[in-house]
């Protein structure tokens, strides 16, 4: 074993000792201790998952990790917006985990790269304690499909879920706008589009599986109303959602 390897093992041993002490000193600390042991072992095997944000031994032991989901990764200034959101999360006392933060392993094809990105993002969601999802309509009248998947992933994982949107008009209203207002109620009181296809009409921000799924789990979906040219850069609704998440995660 070379000097670098020995130093790494000594560092890990010291980290484990510190975690053990904290587990003894804090009520309910053993579950968290076991959680960090798993992450530490995972880090040894797959260090690329911790390139941008190492395991947070420097942070408060009980710091909550929040996965920041949203379509911002596609923006031309993605790094700027993601960094702003991450900074706000840190200021609020949370540890942000965000797609685009971490190094993607080298691959030999586009299909393999897609799978690698999916794997990295799912690993971060597994490590996260909660999610804040940006459900602002993206390339259409509904939330980004990748963000919807991530929200469902966290719901299925039994973790706290929070979300926001920068569009105040509800889902059925946006469907109506899509068809130039040509939606109408049928004889049974069901709202339908010009093709006779039913339209969800619950006054929700998006598909009921998203909005109702969040609220059923005790989360919130903050409704913002940003200017059209700032739909993905206005962080007012995000800040409100972040404040609620911090309070509920205490």
TrEMBL record:
<dbReference type="Pfam" id="PF05014">
    <property type="entry name" value="Nuc_deoxyrib_tr"/>
</dbReference>
<keyword id="KW-0808">Transferase</keyword>
<dbReference type="InterPro" id="IPR051239">
    <property type="entry name" value="2'-dNMP_N-hydrolase"/>
</dbReference>
<protein>
    <submittedName>
        <fullName>Nucleoside 2-deoxyribosyltransferase</fullName>
    </submittedName>
</protein>
<dbReference type="GO" id="GO:0070694">
    <property type="term" value="F:5-hydroxymethyl-dUMP N-hydrolase activity"/>
</dbReference>
<dbReference type="InterPro" id="IPR007710">
    <property type="entry name" value="Nucleoside_deoxyribTrfase"/>
</dbReference>
<dbReference type="GO" id="GO:0009159">
    <property type="term" value="P:deoxyribonucleoside monophosphate catabolic process"/>
</dbReference>
<dbReference type="GO" id="GO:0016740">
    <property type="term" value="F:transferase activity"/>
</dbReference>
């Amino acid at each position: 074993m070379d000097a670098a390897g020995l130093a790494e093992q000594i560092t890990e041993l010291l980290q484990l000792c510190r975690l053990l002490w904290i587990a003894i000193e804090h009520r309910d600390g053993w579950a968290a201790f076991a959680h960090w042991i798993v992450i530490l072992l995972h880090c040894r095997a797959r260090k690329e998952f911790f390139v941008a944000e190492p395991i947070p031994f420097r942070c408060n032991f009980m710091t909550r990790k929040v996965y920041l989901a949203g379509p911002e990764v596609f923006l031309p200034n993605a790094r700027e917006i993601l960094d702003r959101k991450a900074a706000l999360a840190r200021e609020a006392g949370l540890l942000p985990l965000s797609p685009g933060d971490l190094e993607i392993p080298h691959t030999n094809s586009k299909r393999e790269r897609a799978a690698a990105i999916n794997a990295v993002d799912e690993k971060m969601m597994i490590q996260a304690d909660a999610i804040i999802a940006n459900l602002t309509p993206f390339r259409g009248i509904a939330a980004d499909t990748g963000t919807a998947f991530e929200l469902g992933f966290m719901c299925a994982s039994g973790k706290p879920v929070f979300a926001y949107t920068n569009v105040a008009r509800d889902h059925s209203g946006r469907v109506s706008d899509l068809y130039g207002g040509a939606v109408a109620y049928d004889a049974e009181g069901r709202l339908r589009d010009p093709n006779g296809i039913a339209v969800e009409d619950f006054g929700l921000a998006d598909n009921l599986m998203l909005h109702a799924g969040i609220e059923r789990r005790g989360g919130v979906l903050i409704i913002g109303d940003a200017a059209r040219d700032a739909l993905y850069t206005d962080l007012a609704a995000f800040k409100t959602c972040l404040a609620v998440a911090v309070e509920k995660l205490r």
